[in-house]
């Protein structure tokens, strides 16, 4: 009997070798689930097929396609980021040594690497939560193969759905997380840590990372601009296609594109993760260009203080898997030394975006509070 349309909306059932169902029908089911965007269910359907016929090539490829949709490729590059791993390992060892009895919570566990680092450092109980079910299942396998399943428990949930004592035996003493993108906020670190402080952590818990800064720089780069804009090409005006271009930021390695910096780096936002929340904020910066040129983009990156004295960043030229965040302007702006540029920066708790205007242009109306309520005249590089 072929699965019906209503079946496709239900959880994937278990099938057994004695079920009188043709594999071709389940392969078709897996494809339908995939086309509906139900990638995790599609992966399960293909896994059921592989349970009956482990050499079924279509099921193997189908499962991998579904997993690829749910699990981004950057996981592998991140795992090979040696500086990131070494700095987190150092910070985790220091934090666990200060409190060997600490209950450790790892949010966004991924491969389980940070959780296992905590166990290796001597933590007796680590709870690793991972919201993507296929990843969480694999995390459990990794932890078991590594021999740390006696100390590390994997919870297949988003941390914002976890409760004490259902998922944590008690409030955690140490939070370890790395839910950041190239622009720092894109994976929801502000709201996630704020929720954890309220519901999952002790009042004096150690939070890693403890702080984060966003640093920006004015950049001239026709190459970067062309990655997000088009005009007349091949005898056609393709400019209307720009309505589909990225309004916020995309990631790129600045040093791989011909460019000139038009200002010193400057700190835009500074977050203390022990107190910060996801409330939208804005700030106005008066930037003095260091060179004349055409301002095509704002390049920005982060610095994260894991613990005092241990800092991780993705600054330009740094061999970090995160790359840099690039926001192209809609139209290039001519800048000159001695003629300040006003940089309006806002974040909505998950994304930072910029607008640029000359000093004579009026500022935008905002529904978000300024970070400190004042305009800042930036004349020094971020330190």
Automatic annotation (TrEMBL):
Keywords, alphabetical:
Methyltransferase, S-adenosyl-L-methionine, Transferase
Ranges for domain Protein arginine N-methyltransferase come to 213-343
Composition bias of kind Basic and acidic residues appears in 363-383
User: Region Disordered: start and end of each range?
Assistant: 356-383
What is the superkingdom listed in this entry's lineage? Bacteria
Q: Which InterPro entries match?
A: Arg_MeTrfase, PRMT_dom, SAM-dependent_MTases_sf
What is the name of this protein?
A: Protein arginine N-methyltransferase domain-containing protein
Which species is the source of this protein?
Actinomadura livida
């Amino acid at each position: 009997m072929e699965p019906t349309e209503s079946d496709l909306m239900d959880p994937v059932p278990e099938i057994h070798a004695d079920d009188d169902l043709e594999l071709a029908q389940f392969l078709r089911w897996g494809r339908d689930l995939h086309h509906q965007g139900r990638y995790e269910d599609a992966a399960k359907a293909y896994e059921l097929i592989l349970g009956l016929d482990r050499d079924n090539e279509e099921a193997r490829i189908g499962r991998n396609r579904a997993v690829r949709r749910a699990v981004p490729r950057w996981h592998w590059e991140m795992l090979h980021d040696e500086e990131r791993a070494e700095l987190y390992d150092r910070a985790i060892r220091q934090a666990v040594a200060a409190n060997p009895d600490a209950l450790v919570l790892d949010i966004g566990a991924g491969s389980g690497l940070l959780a296992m680092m905590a166990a290796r450092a001597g933590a007796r109980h680590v709870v690793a939560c991972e919201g993507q079910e296929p990843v969480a299942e694999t995390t459990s396998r990794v932890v078991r193969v590594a021999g740390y399943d006696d100390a590390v428990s994997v919870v297949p949930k988003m941390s914002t759905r976890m409760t004490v004592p259902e998922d944590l035996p008690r409030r955690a003493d140490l939070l370890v997380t790395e839910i950041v993108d190239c622009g720092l906020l894109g994976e929801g670190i502000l709201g996630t840590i704020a929720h954890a402080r309220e519901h999952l952590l002790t009042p004096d818990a150690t939070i890693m990372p403890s702080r984060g800064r966003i640093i920006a720089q004015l950049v001239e780069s026709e190459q970067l601009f062309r990655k997000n804009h088009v005009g007349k090409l091949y005898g056609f005006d393709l400019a209307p296609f720009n309505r589909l271009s990225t309004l916020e930021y995309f990631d790129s390695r600045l040093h791989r594109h011909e460019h000139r910096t038009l200002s010193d780096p400057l700190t835009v936002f500074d977050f203390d993760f022990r107190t910060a929340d996801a409330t939208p904020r804005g700030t106005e910066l008066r930037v003095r260009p260091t060179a004349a040129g055409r301002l095509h983009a704002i390049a920005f990156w982060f610095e994260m203080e894991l613990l005092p004295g241990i800092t991780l960043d993705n600054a330009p030229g740094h061999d970090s898997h995160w790359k840099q965040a690039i926001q192209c302007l809609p139209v290039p702006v001519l800048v000159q030394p001695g003629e300040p540029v006003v940089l309006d920066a806002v974040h909505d708790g998950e994304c930072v975006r910029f607008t640029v205007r000359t000093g004579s242009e009026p500022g935008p109306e905002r529904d978000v509070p300024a970070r400190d309520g004042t305009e800042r005249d930036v004349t020094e590089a971020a330190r």
